[in-house]
Amino acid sequence: MSSEAGEWWRSAVIYQVYLRSFADGNGDGVGDIAGLRSRLGYVRDLGVDAIWINPWYPSPMADAGYDVIDQRDIDPAYGTLAEAEALIAEAHDHGLRVILDVVPNHTSELRAWFQEALVGGPGSRARDRYHFRNGRGEHGELPPNNWTSEFGGLAWTRVTEPDGEPGQWYLHLFSPQQPDLNWDHPDVRADFEHTLRFWFDRGVDGFRIDVAHYLIKDDLLPDLQQARYASGEHPHWDREALHDIYRSWRRIADSYDPPRVFVAEAWVESPQRLVRYVRSDELHTAFNFDFLASPWLPGAMKDMIDATLDAHASVAAPSTWVLSNHDVARHVSRYARPQREGIERFLDDFLDRPADLAVGTRRARAAILQMLALPGCAYVYMGEELGLPEVEDLADDVLLDPMFQRSGMISRGRDGCRVPLPWSGHSAPFGFSPGPVRTWLPQPDDWGIYSVARQTDDASSMLELYRTALRMRRLLPALGDGCLQWLSMPEGALGFAREPGFLCVVNYSAAPVVLPDDAVILLASDEFDPGAGVPADTTVWLDVGGPPGR
Ligand code: GLC
Predict the structure, then answer these.
(1) What is the pLDDT of residue 546?
(2) CA 385, 390, 396, 401 torsion: positive or negative?
(3) Ligand 1 pocket residue status of 174, Cβ below 6 Å
(4) From CA 433, how far away is CA 294, in angstroms rounded?
(5) Which of 111, 295, 314, 412 lies 20 to 30 Å from 533, alpha-carbon distance?
(6) How do the domains of the chain map onto residue ranges?
(7) Is the pLDDT of residue 89 over 80?
């Protein structure tokens, strides 16, 4: 790895802990800090460098914790601030860095600021911290503009004023329980700077920034047009003024020793727009969602990898690679479908096609070896190391994601990738909770086959593949930060070289790929006969004579 020790984030593999679903310590069916603390050894042994923990702050959970009441405290369902501090220290003792989620676009409707704004009434200073506006129409009965919520429906909700009359409207680009903050207000900026320092002072190594591209809105809140906007001109998306915020956050992160880091969640239109967030005086990294949304097709994959690497090289930032997270359908299930060009990430996008989970699993094994060989840092979403599929048949009455209700119960939402992990045993809760209890989302009856206990020491399991690959990635000097050279390959396959002495070959097609004579197989995503060539949906790591590993 070419990165200096101080720039650990350029090569890191970061494990996403969706806390509600990772491990339950107190037996109430909801994952918590105690559960995570008890499983830190598992995370360390997996071979990752850091954990990213989804929001654990006090929240009424209208959007699974992305509706935050107080970003400087812990929700009682997850534990206490003292437990959080202990977790941070213990993770460090295990050699794991800790990244938290910061949610700057909106708060919970139950945050004191928003309650003050409701009580304060029109024109009150408290309303300035959010986006309150009078409605249109004769009696203000129409929303101030035509913006819609990410979860479906209007992006505006009308409030009842203190006098009991219908009054102003407030903006929420997500659910009505998540009012958008006004980032032109100095209190908002100061409050988030306080939050960053609060956690940095407690040893936290960095933040993942929730919807980092949304914070700034055009003051005039104009109607959205049908026509495409020029880059940076959209009224609430990827606007120029965001970058000043992130420059100021970078200064805060750099004032710590060692410097703290950021990763942006920014779903923007192109890699060129994305890398504007990771210029040298802004954020360190940004999730590369083009990779996650890319179909398992070699042409699309290669174009996307090239575009990503070129764009990141232009600002000297490392690329990130991610296959799954808590917002998209698990990739085993995405890859289990016949693949088609274009972007697909939600369960709804591919329910029209039958799943072959054996194919999806085989591709997922090939995909992780491809991902871990690419230059830059990588994210692993908890449970993907177990090969978990999306749970596609959750009953309507257990779905909690606001996407489901707000879409008029049309979208299945994101609950299917958030089902609690199976750790051991043959029946629910599969060791997730210490005793028999209903988990917050039900686990499928057959999930024992995916459990950690079942897969441990089974050399053919997904878990052991992840462990081996992550261990090797640490040892191979060619992997992590750096660059790649494409190899000339038969149609349907991709191959690239990394210096020193490493090749990665991925066969997406049915035609076997012959390996170079001098290559030694380091690791393959599935067993095969080298004489017969690399079979379909298989990735191979090859040693072609680099210096000995570190
Ligand atoms: C991000 C989160 C997602 C959440 C949304 C609103 O996209 O990853 O889970 O619903 O922001 O905060």
Answers:
(1) 64
(2) positive
(3) yes
(4) 35
(5) 295
(6) 3-107+186-455, 112-171
(7) yes
In the predicted model, is pLDDT for residue 5 greater than 80?
no
List the one residue out of 286, 411, 390 whose CA is nearest residue 334: 390
| Cα distance between residue 262 and residue 67, in whole Å | 20
Which CATH number is 3-107+186-455 given? 3.20.20.80
Ligand 1 close to Cβ of residue 63 (< 6 A): yes
Give the pLDDT confidence of 129-149 residue by residue, as tens digits.
999 999 999 999 999 999 999
CB 457 within 8 A of CB 464: yes
Q: Is 165 a catalytic residue?
A: no
HEC profile for 56-85? CCCCCCCCCCCCCCCCCCCCCCCCCHHHHH
Among 63, 292, 401, the mutation site with the greatest number of ligand 1 atoms within 8 A of its Cβ is: 63
Mutate to test the pocket of ligand 1, among 66, 99, 106 (most ligand atoms within 8 A of CB): 66
Catalytic annotation present for 265:
yes
The closest alpha carbon to 27, from 434, 462, 365, 426, belongs to 434
| SS3 state at 493 | strand
What's the pLDDT at 3? 44
**Both tokens assigned to 252:** 């805060």
**Distance (Å, rounded) from C-alpha 265 to C-alpha 273?**
13
**DSSP at 370:** H
The one catalytic residue among 210, 384, 415, 543: 210
Identify the residue whose C-alpha is closest to ligand 1 atom 6: 66
Terminal alpha carbon distance of the chain: 10
Task: Assess contact for 262 and 209: CB atoms under 8 A.
Answer: yes
Alpha carbons 452 and 449: distance in angstroms, whole number: 9
What is the dotted CATH code of the domain comprising 112-171?
Answer: 3.90.400.10
Residue 269 in tokens: 């239109």
Burial per residue of 355-367, b for 16 or more beta-carbon CB atoms within 10 angstroms, e otherwise: beeebbbbbbbbb
For atom 2 of ligand 1, the residue with the nearest CA is: 210
The band of 326, judged by pLDDT with boundaries at 50, 70 and 90, is: very high
State pLDDT tens for residues 414-459: 999 999 999 999 999 999 999 999 999 999 999 999 999 999 999 9
Alpha-carbon gap, residue 68 to 62, rounded angstroms: 9
> Which letter does DSSP use for residue 148 in this model?
B
Q: Which two tokens stand for residue 315?
A: 């600002």
SS3 503: strand
Local confidence band at 507 (pLDDT 50, 70, 90 cut-offs):
very high
Alpha carbons 12 and 480: distance in angstroms, whole number: 7
Phi, psi of 478 (to 5 degrees): -75, -20
Residue 400 Cβ contacting ligand 1 at under 6 Å: no
Q: Residue 175 C-alpha to ligand 1 middle, in angstroms?
A: 10
Average pLDDT, the chain: 96
| Tokens, residue 510 | 């049915």
